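Morning. Coffee machine broken again, so started the prediction first thing and wrote up yesterday's gels while waiting. Chain of 146 residues, entered below exactly as on the submission form.
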Amino acid sequence: MLEEIEQPLQIAPSWNAYQAECPTRLMLNRIADKWTVLVLGLLENETKRFSTLQREIGGISQKMLTQTLRGLERDGLVARKIYPSVPPKVEYTITPLGNTLVGLLAALRVWSEANIEQVLLAQSHYDQLSQEALNQEISGIRRVRF
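Came back before lunch.
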């Protein structure tokens, strides 16, 4: 049995996401989008119709799902297949390129789910300290009546 040998990631030397004009920033925007993470996560294991995706992703509007799917299709991460029927049946499936991304996105989703309690506590602590600092500033101001 042949063992798979991991190849180091090949990065073109001409791309640098830290440069303002680098097109890789467009992909970072796509990947960092919560709807992208959720759509690709659902398509990872099976082809789905638009209505199924919308039902399974709580809170996504029809407009946002349409925009997300179009962007993913344009980027080559999702393929759309239209069946000639009345009404037309449209299915979405992840492409091989999209499959190279789902593991990374799943790791982000899992990390978010595993650490949200700590994040919420940190936010609460930060907000409390900010409110205390604001209250101290306000109490230090002398109030003048006119």
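The two ends are 88 Å apart (CA to CA). Going to sketch it on the whiteboard this afternoon.
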